[in-house]
User: What shape does this take?
Amino acid sequence: MKTIIPVLHNVSSSQKVVETAKLIYGLGYKNFIVTKATGSAAQIGVPDAQKIALKKRTNFFYLGDIDDVIELFKPDLVLTVVPGKYTDTLLEDIINEIRNKEKILLIFGGMDPGLSKIEMEKGKPVSPSHIEENIGAIGLVAITLYTLLTIFE
Assistant: This one.
């Protein structure tokens, strides 16, 4: 059974954490990880996201950094999701590669402009089709997860 795990990395907004949690669980995904939360994201957003996960009987994890997630979850594939201007690889073009993997991490940057170059290199940088500019973390999460739902349902 395929497991897709969204990761929101480097976030300071509690509202962004909560809205992303609602989006992920609302689309039917069962896991959500936040890494490197600071400020209100750490103090308010993380506990609120945990509460949402408990109510929905899903999984929420809060870890220090991307390396911790990779070490503990041992994914078959790590994708760093960025706007198209930062990568030539489209999500839709690697669907066969995704199909052949069981556990996939999708890492999204929580602050503008998104992931740093070093963070992008922790996985394979991809972009959903037609997303050239920075539309924000929640928009990128929504389009990416919905695209995968439509392909794998």
